[in-house]
Amino acid sequence: METLKTAGLKKYYGENKNLVKALDGVDLSIKQGEFIAIVGKSGSGKSTLLHMLGGLDRLTDGVVEIDGTDIFKLKDDELTIFRRRKIGFVFQAYNLVPVLNVYENITLPIALDGNKVDKAYVDEIFKTLGIEDKKFKMPNQLSGGQQQRVAIGRALATKPSIILADEPTGNLDSKTSLDVMGLIKVSSHRFNQTVVMITHNEEIAQMADRVIRIEDGKIFGGDICG
């Protein structure tokens, strides 16, 4: 089953001599449960692509479909709700709310939607991420690796269709990076969760099921990892 699809995705900035083609006709197809790494050098278009997939910026042309919904046909308020329910984000900077404890941070997207927390599922997330003893800690009481685990938990909490991870290990040392990547992979498989991650780190990328390379706004290859 296809979770995410793009067709002819373009994002241009400027015009005439100043025209920059950040994305220049990207076609992607990602199945449910796949863990995809998108790699590319700085300026290759990988961050722009992730922003387009998450509906964080408007495209110039093309289509982005998540679970069959063309997200850019939604009105702004509809897109906001769709993102909250269908897309989980994991950022390099964690983006935890400093005045909320770990449990409150993880369940925040559910609370914003006014829904009841699936306690058994959330407990399973805590167990999978190894932070059962951190539930009532504040973000400033956690290490960087622990904060990133909380960010992963928050992304999983709403059972989204897809998780988008933007350099999730960028602020972590090499050992913690591998630990966090292992958790992302385990979480992806345990919860049958589709994950799309951008990274410049080739070693990290090889932990994904498939690696897609982007250069000058165009996609090259889709290697299956061993």
Could you characterize the architecture of this molecule?
This protein is an alpha/beta fold and 226 residues long. It has one domain: P-loop containing nucleotide triphosphate hydrolases (Rossmann fold), CATH 3.40.50. The chain has seven helices and ten strands. It has helices spanning 46-53, 76-86, 102-112, 119-129, 144-157, 174-190, 202-205; strands spanning 2-13, 20-31, 35-39, 61-66, 69-70, 87-91, 162-166, 194-199, 210-215, 218-224. The strands form two sheets. The chain has a six-stranded mixed β-sheet with strand order 6-7-8-3-9-10, sandwiched between helices. A four-stranded antiparallel β-sheet has the order 2-1-4-5, with helices on one face. Helix 3 (102-112) runs parallel beside helix 5 (144-157). The protein is globular, with a radius of gyration of 17 Å. 38% of the residues are buried.
In a nutshell, what does this entry contain?
With 226 residues, the protein is α/β, with parallel strands linked by helices. It has helices at residues 46-53, 76-86, 102-112, 119-129, 144-157, 174-190, 202-205, and strands at residues 2-13, 20-31, 35-39, 61-66, 69-70, 87-91, 162-166, 194-199, 210-215, 218-224.
Structural descriptors:
29% strand, Rossmann fold, 6-stranded mixed β-sheet
Give the arrangement of secondary structure elements:
Layout (H helix, E strand, L loop, with lengths): L1 E12 L6 E12 L3 E5 L6 H8 L7 E6 L2 E2 L5 H11 E5 L10 H11 L6 H11 L14 H14 L4 E5 L7 H17 L3 E6 L2 H4 L4 E6 L2 E7 L2
Parallel strand pairs: 3-8, 3-9, 6-7, 7-8
Antiparallel strand pairs: 1-2, 1-4, 4-5, 9-10
Helix pairs in contact: 3-5, 4-5, 5-6
